[in-house]
Design brief:
Layout: H1 3-19, H2 26-33, H3 37-43, H4 47-63, H5 75-90, H6 94-103, H7 108-128, H8 138-156, H9 165-186
Helix pairs in contact: 1-2, 1-4, 1-6, 4-5, 4-7, 5-9, 7-8, 8-9
Length: 204
């Protein structure tokens, strides 16, 4: 993403923080960024595209670290590291994102348009952690990580600690709960007859 696109996204989030997301229109964003509407249309034709652009910035920041995932670490630890890098990348936009999250439920079409980009971001976070969202069951992993991200975001937006300690604690807790839930689903089903030995029909 080039510098002009970053400038547009910065101005959009600044406006959202100042006046709320619902009052942040594309004309306002173009004026704040000092670009003609034609240029804004080429880069971000909808308000949903602006949100997708913020997600793309965070994705790029995470994927910029090309160090291979350490397979000796647990999947949960690898996902934790990736998601904290994502929250670090989102920190400059926290005030604007708070406005977006507050107003987005009243804009279902914008939320729907953004949902595809959001799922794509979660899939790439899994890949960055050495997990394969394209394998069987991958869709459930994407959905689960998306749910974790949404819940931790509530803490992140109010986290006033210098090192995002509250966000780290919330993320760790949510990932542990998600892991426990997934492990529960993997347990073999118990015998519906109370685990009794099968009766030999040929006996007696």
């Amino acid at each position: 993403m080039d510098d002009l696109s970053r400038t547009i996204l910065d101005r959009a989030m600044n406006l959202a923080a100042e006046r709320g997301w619902r009052r942040t229109g594309l004309v306002d964003v173009a004026k704040a960024a000092g670009v003609p509407l034609r240029e804004l249309y080429r880069r971000f034709p909808t308000r949903g595209a602006l949100l997708a652009g913020i997600a793309e910035l965070a994705d790029a920041a995470v994927l910029a670290d090309e160090t291979p995932p350490d397979e000796r670490e647990s999947a949960r630890d690898r996902v934790f590291d990736v998601m904290m890098r994502r929250f670090d990348a989102l920190e400059p936009y926290r005030a604007g994102l708070a406005a977006v999250i507050r107003d987005l439920p009243r804009e279902p079409l914008t939320a729907l348009a953004f949902s595809t980009a959001y799922a794509r971001s979660m899939a790439w976070m899994l890949r960055a952690a050495g997990l394969d969202p394209d394998a069987p069951g991958g869709a459930a992993l994407v959905a689960g990580l998306g749910a974790v991200h949404v819940r931790v975001m509530r803490t992140f937006l109010k986290d006033d600690t210098a090192d995002l300690a509250r966000t780290m604690a919330a993320l760790d807790g949510e990932l542990r709960r998600a892991e426990s839930w997934a492990n529960t689903l993997r347990r073999p089903e118990r015998n519906t007859a109370g685990d009794r030995e099968p009766v030999d029909a040929s006996a007696g």
